[in-house]
Amino acid sequence: MAVKVEELLTADINQPARYLGNELGATHKPWDGALVRWVLTYPEVYEVGASNLGHIILYNILNAGPRQLCDRAYLPAPDLAAKLRSTKTPLFAVESRRSLTEFDILGFSLSYELGATNILEMLDLAGIPLTWQERATNPQNGQIPLIFAGGQTATSNPEPYADFFDFIALGDGEELLPEIGLILAEGKTNNLSREALLLDLAQIPGVYVPQFYDMAADGSVHPNRPQVPERILRRVATPIPAYSIGLVPYVQTVHDRLTVEIRRGCTRGCRFCQPGMLTRPARDVEPQQVVEAIEQGMQATGHSEFSLLSLSCSDYLALPAVGMEIKNRLKDKNISLSLPSQRVDRFDDNIADILGGTRQGGLTFAPEAGSQRMRDIVNKGLTNEELLRGVKTAVDRGWDKIKLYFMIGLPGETDFDVLGIAETVRWLHRECRIDGRRGLTFNLTISNFTPKPHTPFQWHSVSTAEFSRKQKLLKEEFRGMRGVKVNYTDVRISAMEDFVGRGDRRLAAVVRRAWELGAGMDAWWESLDKAYKAWTQAIDESGLTWKYRQVESGEWNLFEKEEEKEEGSSATDSVTDVTDVTDVTDVSSMSVGRRKKEEGREIKEDFPNSSDLPLSPSPTLPLSPSPSLPLSLDQALPWDHLDTGIDKNWLKIDLQKALEAATVPDCSFEGCSRCGVCGTDFGHNVVVDALPIPEFAGEFVPNTERKQRVRVWFGKVGDMALVGHLDLIRLFDRVVRRADLPISFTGGFHPNPRISLANALPLGVTSTGEIADFELTESIDIESFREKLAAKLPANIPIYKVESIDLKAPSANQLLEAAEYVITVAVGGSLTENGELDHENSAPVSVAPDANWEAWVKTIAETEAFWRVHTTKSGKTKDVNLRDRLHKLELVEQKPDSTSAKSATSEGRAVLRFTGSCRSDGNLLKPEHIVFMLEQVSQQEIQLLQVQRSQLILGYG
């Protein structure tokens, strides 16, 4: 039987604050005032979904619309999912706590090939039929919300998931979703059927309704009725930074900062990069909009960090000027800026200036390949000289940790190129060494290349067997190399991504069966073995094992082998040989420090001097000047009916250039590459020129002055009891920033605000007696301080008292002596019946059979010792007399348990008040200790139902 959501959100589940829906920025629009009710459902745990910028932007835009309401839902963690299933309670939206079936439309973000199993999990938990076919034939289909997906994977190739969605939203959603909302409102007003409503939606550019299209034998997709377009247009919108300001979660999320987009789209033309192809044209945001959004957003959210987001931030030419302007404006706020992976060739002193500060983070660059030839093949546009210059600049400016991204399995790659990754890192280590300083540390992530739709490499075939072999080569090469940490993407993940990512509608049955077999949370390492087994079994059962085997061994290779060229064979011949994977030479036995030999050519491992750059193209591995492209490039693809703007013929031409290792310039800054995007439907590149860089106003200097200490007595009531202690500390930090209070900072490299909580309150416990100390850089009127702080605190953190305290006085934590609690307890049955009697720790007392709560409390008061073994944080054990820690215990209220037929004298519930030790040295009496003592004197199982801390008691001497 379904239960109230509030009964499920308890302290016994992990991070219950994930599901409260009471974050700063949550909208909570009136239910009855909305005509169309949305849920944006993110198929990952809250910590991932709530910090996703697209999720935040669309949530804000939809709630800004008249008569539109947007709530949110996230994939519940396994503990809550189990509770939902065991109680038959449907999955709910976090703000209204209504079942998802009560809404009109659910929108899922599909940004990852294997994420669809999480979507099926959420639909199942909500009690919604999984496929559009099941929903259409369900007698209650008028009460079932429309289910749609958006996001990069949905835009790229929705066919493997087409059966699960009523429609797909292609491309940017800022303008598309409000248009969908208008059609839904009109459809509800006119009481349209589900099919008629979907037909109306299909007229909106960017809306793809799979049930109105059929798959041909070759995997291509065509309309099955004349009212829908043959090809569906990808939507393009202009970024609006103001909508980035929104949710501020209480729990720490993956991206725990304010994020503002500065540039959408990338025209660098990296041939492996799907986002770069699917987000064209490039659109720079006006610098003034960025600066204002950051300044207003940091004040509104209280974040201590912000990030400027783009596929390539360094290509936003105004970045140094914008970054410096923001840094100057927020100079006194102890705020830091982070950037995602940057173009190492554009990293210079100007960018280093805006990143430096008291909390200098790491840097991330993506050379992608270990040789110049491979970087030219993928059109990375990066030379060895530029790579060295960028890394040297970082080292000169104080960075000693740099993250580098590389890929293996790229088209045309040889062992020479793979080993070049290690050679490049070794070379950078040597060239960037500075005497007298700590050595440079590289953190490498080496991914397995998986071809993506809508890229020039979409026709390429990978081999997971080759991935494994090349990883082994690199592990041998990196063994013993100091200052390097290497992480490898699991080959099984890459195999599943490639198999599903370029599949057709036949894979819907595989995805569903994989979910039924337990494939979920696929991006999380702890579930990988289970997920992989489920996927492979689902593939076997579907009869598509032959296709998966091609992923393991490689169907064919775009690059002809050198041996075949010598024999006069053509590239087309190599395509038909399933065993013809990338040309390789087994050099696994070659060790560091030796001279290597590949393809008959000796390669010296160490460069004789710094002018010798690593791994120039091998003369024994020439590429044909104009090899023929395989005939299979003309075959239909499952995503050909999606009009992303990229001309398929241009992709073929660019692939030809890759075969010739020819690079193509960035069309945002040089000539047009004729990709087909620019025009009426998609717009044109919008590039903001570089601006004058403001004069640097200086780094943040923490104000460590202490002019006043303010002590605050506050409560933690209602659902705020489910917010953990560390999250509460972060909350106070943000509240002080939003209230603009003159907080003092600690010194050192990582200055923190001087805010001290007297004692950590256990999760799930309410309180009306918490204490916090605030130290300020200037004296402030106590009432003014109280008003400013209270105005920014959540309603369920009330302030009871505020006092000014002598700066020389001990802190509340140092003065803490005791705590008073009020607890509700109940009898759960005989300990001997339940097999839980603890003879070793039993108290030497005898209790009459007719004992009741009053007698038990009296017995505890009269008993001198209750011994219990205590284990310290270091693992040591010692015997503790809990009675010494109990100052006072009294019975407040006693009442029979309405669910029990036993006598009220020894059964039922009781409310007790106790005062016990609560010192910072670990001398504590917890509510669980009172339960232990009650069990010893009653020989009954005692259940702890509710806990409230009513006050903390300070000892002023």
Helix-strand layout with pairing:
Elements: H1 5-8, E1 36-42, H2 46-49, H3 53-64, E2 68-74, H4 78-87, E3 105-109, H5 116-126, H6 132-137, E4 146-150, H7 152-156, E5 167-169, H8 176-189, H9 194-201, E6 207-208, E7 213-215, E8 221-223, E9 232-233, E10 258-261, E11 263-264, H10 274-278, E12 283-284, H11 287-301, E13 305-309, H12 319-329, E14 336-338, H13 349-355, E15 363-368, H14 372-377, H15 384-396, E16 401-408, H16 415-431, E17 441-448, H17 464-478, E18 484-488, H18 491-501, H19 507-516, H20 528-542, H21 545-553, H22 562-566, H23 571-575, E19 596-598, E20 601-603, E21 642-643, H24 648-659, E22 708-716, H25 725-739, E23 755-757, E24 766-776, H26 782-792, E25 799-805, H27 812-815, E26 816-830, H28 831-834, H29 853-862, E27 867-871, E28 877-881, E29 886-895, E30 909-917, H30 927-938, E31 940-954
Parallel strand pairs: 1-2, 1-3, 3-4, 4-5, 9-21, 10-13, 13-14, 15-16, 16-17, 17-18, 24-31
Antiparallel strand pairs: 5-6, 7-8, 11-12, 19-20, 22-24, 22-25, 23-24, 26-30, 26-31, 27-28, 29-30
Helix pairs in contact: 5-19, 8-9, 11-12, 11-25, 12-13, 16-17, 19-20, 25-26, 29-30
Explain briefly what this protein structure is.
The protein is of the alpha/beta class. It has 30 helices and 31 strands.
- Structure classification: alpha/beta
Number of strands: 31
**Percent range for helical residues?**
25-40%
Q: Which ranges are low-confidence, i.e. pLDDT below 50, for 5 or more consecutive residues?
A: 560-628, 832-851, 899-906
Mean pLDDT: 87
